[in-house]
Design goal:
Blueprint: H1 95-110, E1 131-140, E2 157-164, H2 166-172, H3 178-181, E3 182-183, E4 187-189, E5 194-200, E6 208-211, E7 214-218, E8 224-231, E9 237-243, E10 246-247, E11 261-263, E12 268-271, E13 273-275, E14 280-288, H4 293-296, E15 305-312, H5 322-329
Parallel strand pairs: 2-7
Antiparallel strand pairs: 1-14, 2-15, 3-6, 4-5, 5-8, 6-7, 8-12, 8-14, 9-10, 9-11, 9-15, 13-14
Amino acid sequence: MSMQRTWSILAAGFLAVGCAAAGKPEPQHGGDEQAPPATEEPNAFPGQDAPAAEAAPRAPESSNYDFRDEAGSEEAPSRAPAAGPPAPEARNEAGSADLRRYEESSHASRGAAPAKKSARPLDFEPERPGLGTTWGETRTSRVSNAPFERSSQNPFSLTSIHYNDSSGVAAMLHGASPVAYRTDAATVVSNGAVTVRLVDANGSPLPTFTTASGPLVQGDVGQRYQIELVNETSSRFEAVVTVDGLDVIDGRPGAFGKRGYLLQPFATLDIDGFRQNMEEVAAFRFGSVRGSYAAQKGNDRNVGVVGVALFAERGASGPWSERELRRRESAEPFPGRFAAPPIAR
């Protein structure tokens, strides 16, 4: 499918536009499942209830930076770029000083009574099954900044897409046949204003199933994937996106107060990795939960979910809410069928 690429843009504070492609066929995906209790569900935006100090500050509306991705995909970060997987602690060159401290500590503790051994064996948490998203290879993906003022600090649409391997999908379907839940429909938000789906490295939709808790996508270990958003309207939107509960731009817990990628009118945005800087991302690749970027950062609680929060632009028309659509549809051309008595004086 042919696609016309455009410049990527990063809005007010750090937004971004992904590969814009006018006229691209509408993607397909959907979802619906009997999920475990709500307390067991991964949270796509775990930092939403965090103190306000963690929210990204609003960037000056005049900040503009233009870049271009070699592959044509355009994105833009919102806060600080995501940090890479934790590196081994650097060795202290002052080895003698460390040694002295260790010796002093050892001497001081020799007179202490030996610690009492616990009668209970240590509890080791078993490795979690299923897929997580790892910090993949570095890919070129240049971004730019552009001003964008939200009409509200709350998103008009919040979408969650869960993912797992084949055995995990079967388990999450609670024994039902995956064939019966397979769907080609994309995740459609706000009456078709935007569609969201997970695609493979070639842009083909990954197998998707309808579940009670939303779309459930099947992947394989080592497979690279992208998050595709398609804007079907003439308005611009800001998309704050998370993977495994981590913001794809700064690698910290996702929250609505952060800035995101700019989705241009009638355009397609492909987000294909955690942002390392203004020119590179670390590709999204499925892997084990233990090997996931979230686990390496110390918390694998929200592994297995992709979140997309969409914000409208101040002053722009739409997107249309269900309530407003019902009011429009029920509007009467002749609401006063009979004459009303005059007002008493």
